[in-house]
Amino acid sequence: MLSAVVPDIIRLIRCGIGQETYGLEMGCVRGIERGDRVQWADNEDGSVGILLEEDGDVPVFSLAKLLGRPLQNLGSQQSAILLQVPRPWALLVDRVSQVSHVATDCVGAVPFALSGKHAEKFHAVVRHEGELLLLLSPDRLLDSGPGEELQPSISRQGKQPPFQHLARDSASNQPHQSQLILFRPLAALRPGRPISCALSITQVLEILDAPPLVPVPSAPDFVLGLASWHDQSVPVLDLALCLGLPSSKTEVRPRLLVACGSDPSQQLAFQVKPSIRILRLPVPHQISTRDLGLNEGLVLSAFEMKNETIILLDFDALLHY
């Protein structure tokens, strides 16, 4: 739970390591010490030193090391934040800000797609002064047990034929709902027929210029970071990596496609190539029976068009990937 000094206000500090900044709620902080007070040592418990306090030695852990970031040279220019959760210990960081007061309506939950093992070291996302901050969870930072890895499905058995899941939309007599948004992930070109991804137009919330991303250190490689979108934090996935395609970061001006699944509050975004199209249904097509070399657990269906193969993404599967 977030502590507050007055109703609807929390107090936090910014903790910096390298070029990254995180938030820490002041309710668990009992003090801040200079780095020159730390007695450096490479201890078996993973700590990088100790602080000699009146009530006993306090182990000091590097935030960079806990988050799997490159460990900088330890030195007196750093700061050690004394914490009480889950026991007395200290967090070594490169820099610490003054205390900020943030309205609780600027504090949101970690997005659904990053919950659990993908962001176990954070318990909230803060929007403050035009930036997103992941709020550290001290009681989880020292819990380094690995999460269970999900094994993606590789079979399309039981998947729906193309467009069948859109039948409910078509029955509503809203013409725009019988359209697909076609786009291509940031993937290196492969020999053979080009592949485009598709989502129902009702799932696509917005397409915009790709904004700067906030990294999520404990997330897997296919999570590029968090994007700020209409005062919400949305996870941005490398769709190429998710699908098993060779990822490419050479696109000069990628677009950000924000979409949702059956629950509109559960959102994801993808960096995609600028060539985005609308496909109006119905269209002549053939169900694809060839091996596409993709993670088919994320594919609802695949079909062949005249000049390309189109895969209909299983958005809810991506949310749980």
3D structure, described in words:
- The chain has 321 residues and is mainly beta.
- It has two domains: 9-141, OB fold (Dihydrolipoamide Acetyltransferase, E2P) (Beta Barrel); 164-319, OB fold (Dihydrolipoamide Acetyltransferase, E2P) (Beta Barrel).
- Helix content is 7%, strand content 39%.
- The strands form five sheets. A six-stranded mixed sheet has the order 3-7-8-6-5-4.
TL;DR of this structure?
The protein contains five helices and 24 strands. It is mainly beta and 321 residues long.
Approximately how much helix is present in the residues? under 10%
Give average pLDDT, whole number. Answer: 84
- Named at the architecture level, the CATH assignment of the largest domain is Beta Barrel
Strand tally is: 24
Q: How does the overall form come out from the CA principal axes?
A: elongated
The CATH class designation of the largest domain is: Mainly Beta
Indicate the low-confidence ranges by residue numbers.
Answer: 1-6, 145-176
**Biggest sheet, spatial arrangement of strands:** 3-7-8-6-5-4
Name given to the CATH homologous superfamily of the largest domain: CheA-289, Domain 4
Count of individual helical segments: 5
